[in-house]
Amino acid sequence: MKWALVLSGGGGNGIAHIGILKELERLDLRPNLIVGTSMGSVVGGIYAAGKSPGWMHDYLKNEFDIREAISLHTIKWGEGPVVKALMAGEALHNLRTRLGAESGKKILELLREVSDDMDIRDTRIPFACNAVDMMSGKEVVFTEGNLAEAIRCSIAVPPFFEPYEMHNTLYVDGGFADNLATHIARKMGYKRILSVNVVPLRPVSKVNIKNGLDVLFRLMTITIHGLHKEQDATVALTAYKGAYNFDFDRVDELVEVGELAVRNQEKLIRKKFSSRF
Predict the structure, then answer these.
(1) Number of folded domains in the chain?
(2) pLDDT per residue over 40-97, tens digit each?
(3) For 198, phi and psi rounded to 5 degrees?
(4) What does the DSSP assignment read for the chain?
């Protein structure tokens, strides 16, 4: 019984996708296709390349450092110990001289390393991710070519990351075309789809809007939801905790959110996607 797993974008909230994959493996359920957008393309692509969700959990918790992955200096942003990856002054200066606040070069190096610099056609599980071609304004779906570069295109969220230049054009975050791209799985012939959304549009309190970056992130969430195409999934999960885009300090908590999302719908998921039912 062939089925596809579709993972949404959502910055730090996308860490929950690791918990989704952990629980699916516990249920002995492995997708025949993974479609990812933005952070969903990172987790989905690395998994498709052969890394286990346990490996990704351990890597994010014990090895990954956002301060090494992003060139900008770090500052405390908001309350609590969360380290944020943008310094307003430097970011604004970069936007005057470059196409984004952050070049994304270090992120691409990391993606090449953890994906073994693999071609999408060679992944253990078939994989696709989307991005937006800035020149044509159209969605582009990557099903071949270098995996790390395709993911880099899909996560190029403006104005933070520079668009990625490839094929004589510029690519930006796929979420601006469709943040939960079930239509890609449908076009690739899959009728059974498990979708995971980590950034549902929910009301927020005024106290959650503390500064200009909060305003920008909120507007991006609203815009992305306004661009959603009709979603068509056999089972649609929501795994949301409310992390900031660059919040990678709550790995265990966010992974657990994904695990709980599957457990809460375990009976239905087994029924729809297990060959034993």
Answers:
(1) 1
(2) 999 999 999 999 999 999 999 988 766 566 665 433 344 433 334 444 445 555 545 5
(3) -105, 5
(4) ---EEEE---GGGGGHHHHHHHHHHHTT---SEEEE-THHHHHHHHHHTT--HHHHHHHHHHT--HHHHS-S--EE-SSSS-EES--HHHHHHHHHHSSSSB--HHHHHHHHHHTTT-BGGG-SS-EEEEEEETTT--EEEESSSBHHHHHHHHT--TTTBPPEEETTEEEEEGGGT-SS-HHHHHHTT---EEEEES-------GGG--SHHHHHHHHHHHHHHHTPPPP--SEEEE------TT--S-HHHHHHHHHHHHHHTHHHHHHHH-TT-
**CATH code of residue 128:** 3.40.1090.10
pTM equals: 0.85
Domain that holds residue 153: 4-273
Average pLDDT over residues 98-121: 84
* Phi, psi angles (nearest 5°) of residue 85: -100, 20
